[in-house]
Amino acid sequence: MSEKIGNVWVFIEQEGGKIADVSLELVCKGTELAKKLGVKTEGVIIGNNLDEKVETLFHYGCDTVYQVEDKTLEPFTVLLYAETLVKMLKEYKPNILLFGATLKGRELAPRVASTMLAGLTADCTDLQIDDFEDKIAKKMYKNKLMQIRPAFGGNIIATIVNTWKDPQMVTVREGVMKLSTPVTSKKGKVIKIKPELSAESKVMHVVERVSAEKAVDLKKAQIIVAGGYGVGTKENFRLIRQLADALGGEIGASRAAVDAGWVDHDYQVGQTGVTVRPKLYIACGISGSIQHRAGMDQSSKIIAVNTDSEAPIFSVAHYGIVGDLNDVIPKMIKAFKAKA
User: Fold this and answer.
1) Entry pTM
2) Which of 37, 126, 187, 323 could bridge 148 with an S-S bond, Cβ 3.0-4.6 Å?
3) Which residues contact 210 (CB under 8 A, 6 or more apart)?
4) Exposed, middle or buried by CB within 10 Å (0-12, 13-18, 19+), for 240?
5) 124 touches 140 (CB < 8 A)
6) In contact, 107 and 123? CB cutoff 8 Å
7) Going by C-beta distance under 8 Å and a sequence separation of 6 or more, which residues neighbour residue 26?
8) In this structure, are 334 and 269 located in the same domain?
9) What is the 3-state secondary structure (H, E, C) of 287-304?
């Protein structure tokens, strides 16, 4: 008889009474994976006063929610969360554990993986269930998690398989997985847990918290005009803003433009930025590395402007314009205003 497969778990990140969007996206993806495996989708939410947050998780696909509450668990401190999660993993033995690749997720997931001696793949762009044959060990693994992400500086797409002891663990960036329509009639089971926390895990105390709103939420933008290193200078980036303003959209940027200091990181699109799916994405002076394309290739319509006719960005563009953006963008603005 084959060993029973554990359930799919999602670490539910919450802050100030709001569940992180990436956690809801992962619940949707986790539900897809769980269906393929014939198991349940379960969320783990840790903090205090969580009753009002749980119902939403059922709407997006959770069958069960483990509600772990203690006043010492607010605000987030990694030692307490890691100890709590490790104890639960050892007791319930899930097959898969998904984290958002947020500041919290990136701090928590490696600690949990290290303690559990489990594999961890960061910044996945896709997750699938499939069989894996280890040709060296001559062994077949059934229903393993295919952990897909760019590797070697974005030159290849790697599929990583964890053949170690479960759980199979990954982090996924916000916006990578599609958010399904919530089913408000869906109900589920809540398991409330009062954690036993050691004195060692309580050595860290939050003295002061300072937070600031992001400059922009690109995930909600329907039109994005993005500039890359080909824009040339910070001053030239005004053309990107002018076109975005004319179209009623937001500006975006490649990592090269952000690294050059031309625009804030909040505007970065791609593997190390935000993943977007606008109705219209205009890429200006962006070569189109794998990392950038991973963050925007699901846009409904893509227009690329580049002087290099062989630039990789044209491989995902619906419309391509080979030319100097300093000449092309003003003409685009003029043409749009003429028809407005």
Assistant:
1) 0.86
2) 126
3) none
4) buried
5) no
6) no
7) 10, 98, 99, 100, 172, 177
8) yes
9) CCCHHHHCCCCCCCEEEE
- pLDDT tens track for 313-327: 999 999 999 999 999
Burial classification of residue 258, based on how many CB atoms lie within 10 Å of its CB (0-12 exposed, 13-18 middle, 19 or more buried): buried
- 179, with CB counted inside 10 A (0-12, 13-18, 19+), is middle
With beta carbons less than 8 A apart as the criterion, state whether 214 and 188 touch.
Answer: no
- With a CB cutoff of 8 Å and minimum separation 6, the contacts of 314 are 288, 304, 306, 320
For helices 103-116 and 78-92, angle between their N-to-C axes, nearest 10 degrees: 50
Q: Could you tell me the CATH number of the domain that includes residue 261? A: 3.40.50.1220
Tell me the C-alpha distance between 325 and 283, whole Å.
Answer: 10
Q: Tens-digit pLDDT profile for the chain (340 aa)?
A: 356 889 999 999 998 778 999 999 999 999 999 999 999 999 999 999 898 889 999 999 999 999 999 999 999 999 999 999 999 999 999 999 999 999 999 999 999 999 999 999 999 989 999 999 988 888 999 999 999 998 876 678 899 999 888 999 999 988 899 999 999 999 999 999 999 999 888 888 888 887 777 778 898 899 999 999 999 999 999 999 999 999 999 999 999 999 999 999 999 999 888 999 999 999 999 999 988 998 999 999 999 999 999 999 999 999 999 999 999 999 999 999 998 6
Residues 258 and 316 in one domain: yes
Instruction: Show the domain range for 240.
Output: 218-339
Helix, strand, or coil (residue 281): strand
Is the domain of 67 the same as that of 194? yes
* Whether residue 251 sits in one domain with residue 166: no
**Do the Cβ atoms of 148 and 172 come closer than 8 Å?**
no
Count CB neighbours of 198 within 10 A. 12
Torsion sign, CA atoms 113, 119, 123, 124: negative
How many structural domains is the chain composed of? 2
Residue ranges with strand state E in 41-138: 41-47, 64-69, 96-100, 120-124, 126-134
